[in-house]
Amino acid sequence: MSMTETVKGEANTMKEEVFSLRDVSVYYGANLAVDSVNLPVYKNEITALIGPSGCGKSTILRSLNRMNDLIPGARVTGEVLYHGEDIYGPTVDPVQCAKSSAWCSRNQTLSPSPFTTTSPSAHAPSA
Could you tell me the domains of the chain? Predict the structure, then answer.
């Protein structure tokens, strides 16, 4: 598969793949955390990973910028391509890879969910 592909139903629109995960599995020691993920991420589109706590969303995200390299015993198999280059290839510097990517993580202390609040005034009737 190339970095672009034709998507049916959209008048042969060409989409550029920024990331492409191919049969990606992530292990922590002998434990398989994520199994055989295949996921294209296209330029100028929003991609969301949705699932219950502990299902592997953050693990997959960490594989996109090699942050799993910081976890002892963690290993990633399969291909994680960024603009067609395997970021786990022998010529890729993992430090540069992590530095060049943006990582935004939701932290309840710093960025609470807009759907929950502990403020009593939020439950007061409006005037």
Answer: 4-123 (3.40.50.300)
